[in-house]
Design brief:
The protein has about 270 residues and is an alpha+beta fold. The protein has one domain (about 5-265): Arylamine N-acetyltransferase fold (2-Layer Sandwich). The protein has helices at about 5-10, 25-35, 40-45, 55-65, 70-85, 185-195, 240-250, 255-265, and strands at about 40, 85-95, 105-115, 115-120, 135, 140-145, 145-155, 160-165, 170-175, 205-210, 215-220, 220-225, 230-235. The strands form 2 sheets. An 8-stranded antiparallel sheet has the order 5-4-3-2-9-8-7-6. Strands 1-10-11-12-13 form a 5-stranded antiparallel sheet. β10 and β11 form a beta hairpin. α4 (about 55-65) packs across α5. It is globular, with a radius of gyration of 18 Å. The termini are far apart.
Amino acid sequence: MHFDLTAYLQRIGIAENISEVSLATLARLQLAQARHIPFENMDPLTGKVPDLDPEALCRKLVEDRRGGYCFEVNALFGMALSALGFEAMPIMARVRNGAPRGGPRSHRAFIVTILDRKYLADCGFGGGAPFTPVQLDMAEPQAIRGETYRIRRDAETQEEVLERQVPEGWYGLYGFERSPAFEPDFEAANFVTARWEKAPFPDNLMMARVTDDGRNTLFNRALKITRHGASDARRIETSQDFEEAMTGFFGLPHLPELFAAVWDRIRDK
């Protein structure tokens, strides 16, 4: 299919055309997409397996202004990188979320090469991921918009692990290897992730959106608003509050039928 780069750029709030293949362009795209296209798993939560067909993704994320989870939003990101001429290798990662080891390969991200340097680029990790790319082959911690990350080699699993510095120490987000993943890998992982009873997505609502000065996150009815490193935790109590959070904090269009179906799944959580 023809990828409409102009429509994508407008969706993520960039009015002018972009053509330069550079780290600055990559960082701008990653941050802009995370600001305008939220991470959300409403389809798996309401019993649907997300459609990864490129036309379906563009319709859902660009035209209909929805969000999606990693297999969707990072697939869209990959289409944009390809259209702009970036050398971007899709990879599969094992989510850790603080655990010493990851689970199955259930996360999509990219290793992007620019002028012989490699970067981890990711628009689709809902939990505290970097706002902009992380340089690989660099042992020192990297400060990114007020947060600190590093890439650590795990000798036991032979993975590289993306870690974020938190008050308690280093918190592992996910581990990955530098080998390419292909569309059948994503199709299979998408189906399992959306339907498997051990995966979090069929039973819990998880959302995230980057803002100018922080991020908004939601786990079921637990809403957290982070600004300049300080967090305000709230609990959504009513369906009206839920709809207002969806359109306000997460920038979704008004979708009353979908919101009602999602609220019905989380109202007692």
